[in-house]
Hints:
Blueprint: H1 3-13, E1 22-28, E2 35-40, E3 43-49, H2 54-58, E4 66-70, E5 73-74, H3 80-88, E6 92-99, E7 116-120, E8 146-151, E9 157-162, E10 172-175, H4 177-189, E11 205-206, E12 240-243
Antiparallel strand pairs: 1-6, 2-3, 2-11, 4-5, 4-6, 7-8, 7-12, 8-9, 9-10
Amino acid sequence: PGPGGAHEALDRASHYSEDSIKIVHIDKTNEPLGATVRNEGESVIIGRIVKGGAAEKSGLLHEGDEILEVNGIGMRGKSVNEVCDLLATMTGTLTFLIVPCNQETIVPRTTDTGMIHVKAHFDYEPDEDLYIPCRELGIPFQKGDVLHVINRDDPNWWQAYRQGEEDQTLAGLIPSKSFQQQREAMKQALAGGDTGSKEKTKRGKFLCAKKHHKKKKKKSSSATGTLSDESEANEPVPTYEEVSLYYPRPNCKRPV
C-alpha cells in the first residue's frame, strides 16, 4: 500500500481505545489466506493458523489475535460467516487492524519433527461434517488412505496432507484420533436415532476461497453404514493406525 493507505490505517487505529493495535499487510491471492476465526462476544478472534497459507508464511497473524478491521471494514459485531464471506471476495494487499494476543499465551510454532503417518480406518467427507471449523479446508479420504499429519496442536483437528498430494502448499484439516473416537462412540450410544439435529453447532470458517481436492470414486455404500449393534462397546473404535513409510535403498535390487 502507498503512503496514503498507511496514513489512513493509522488514523483509523487511533479511533479505538485499545492500548496496542498492530497494522498488518498481507498479500492474498485466490488461494486461502490460511486462518480460521471464531466469535468471542462481539469480537472476531483468530482461532487457528494453518501451515502453508499466506498468514503462516507472513508470521504476522497469531492465534488469539482480534481482527478489528480489514481494508477499513469493521469486524466487531459480525458473525463468523459474515467475516468469511467478506474476506472470500478480497484479493490483493489486505490491511488488517489487529489487537495482538497476550504474548504469554502465544504458542511457539511447531516444526515438522512431529510428523506422523497414519492409515485411515473410516471414510470421511468434510462437506457432511457439521463440526469442522472450515469445511472448505477439510480433506476427504476413504478407508485405507494414508495421511501425513504435520500438526497435532489442536486436540480436535489435525493438519495433514493426503498421500500423493504433498506438493500442495496448504495443509488441510482432518478430525483428530480422540475426537473421531468420541464421535463414533456417541454414534454407537445413539445407534438407530436421528443425531443430525444434535450435530448443529456454530463452526468457525476459513478466511479463504474454497480449497479444491480431487474427488475419489466412492466405494460401495456398505463402507459408510452404521456400526453394528454387535460391536463391543468397550473396545476403542478404530480410527487411524500409525504406519511407517518404507523407502527402498537405491542400491538394493529386488530378486527376480
